Amino acid sequence: MKKQYAVIGLGRFGGSMVKALSDQGMEVLAIDIDEERVNEFSNIATHAVIADTTDESVLKSLGIRNFQHVVVAIGDNLQASILTTLILKEMGVEKITVKAQNDYHEKVLKKIGADKIIHPERDMGIRIAHQIVSSSVLDYLELSEEHSMVELKASEKMNGKNLIELDIRARFGCNVVAVRRGKEIYVSPQANQSIHQGDILIVIGRDKDINRLEKHMT
Ligand code: ADP
Q1: Phi, psi angle pair for 73, to nearest 5°
Q2: Which segments constitute the RCK N-terminal domain (predicted)?
Q3: Do residues 134 and 111 both lie within one domain?
Q4: 169-191 exposure pattern, b = at least 16 Cβ within 10 A, e = fewer
Q5: Are 91 and 59 in contact (CB under 8 A)?
Q6: In terms of domains, do 88 and 174 share one?
Q7: Is the pLDDT score of 42 beyond 80?
Q8: Which residues contact 176 (CB under 8 A, 6 or more apart)?
């Protein structure tokens, strides 16, 4: 059976999720309290309904319990976001992802058992800041408070050397998990993989080690 998704809150974030899920051929139920927003999605989502999701009976009548994954993307109304999540949890929804507005909101969502909490604006802000500060960092993904994965552009200093000669793991404590060259991608590269200037190295490590690598090698 096809996986069924529901997205509650059709703002910029929830709306983009509905579009992307539909583009991938998924079944999506799109829900919002606002009629105009719902109308916008009536031709995009599998079903689009007007509903206040803080009302348990409404969620029951939509059969939300049978959806494998429900995304709560209610923006500023923290109370509605928290109450909706709580009801979904109590109804036994398999997986609940919630967009958090701030740290307080996240704390409450964790307590009531949201499976995944996301901070799209905060995370995107951090990613873009890293890209702006360093011309060699093309993308950045936070893995924990101290660890990240970054895409680094190979510098002239690295040109023609292989991974043994660069010795990135021993010198900087970082791991090169893949190398991208144009359309080719070498995943888990061998030690003798040679690097060309302009290759993209996908590196995992502690933030301070990645910073040292950036300073010395790019
Ligand atoms: P974004 O920051 O992603 O653009 P918005 O705050 O604009 O988010 O969107 C949140 C959406 O959630 C709005 O369309 C709003 O109508 C909807 N919403 C708010 N409260 C409820 C609720 N109780 N039930 C269903 N949808 C709601």
Answers
A1: -120, 45
A2: 2-118
A3: no
A4: eeebebebebbbeeeeeeeebee
A5: yes
A6: no
A7: yes
A8: 163, 168, 169, 189, 201, 202, 203
The three-state (H, E, C) secondary structure of 65-100, written as one string: HHCCEEEECCCCCHHHHHHHHHHHHHHCCCEEEEEC
Please indicate, yes or no, whether residues 101 and 203 belong to a single structural domain of this protein: no
Pocket test for ligand 1, best of 29, 33, 87, 123 (most atoms within 8 A of CB): 33
Please list every protein residue whose CB sits less than 6 Å from any atom of ligand 1. Answer: 8-14, 31-34, 37, 52-54, 73-77, 80
Q: Whose CA is nearest to atom 15 of ligand 1?
A: 9
Q: Of 69, 84, 118, which closes a domain?
A: 118
DSSP 101: S
Q: Do 39 and 128 fall within a single domain? A: no
Give the integer Cα–Cα distance in Å for 166 and 37. Answer: 53
d(CA 188, CA 177): 5
Read off the pLDDT band of 169 (50, 70, 90). very high
pTM: 0.78
pLDDT of residue 126: 87
> Whose C-alpha lies nearest to ligand 1, atom 21?
33
Domain containing residue 109: CATH number: 3.40.50.720
Q: What is the pLDDT averaged over residues 81-93? A: 97
pLDDT digits (tens, 9 = 90+) for 90-140: 999 999 999 999 999 999 999 999 999 999 999 888 888 888 877 788 888
- Atom 19, ligand 1: which residue's CA is nearest? 74
Q: What is the mean pLDDT of residues 164-192?
A: 94
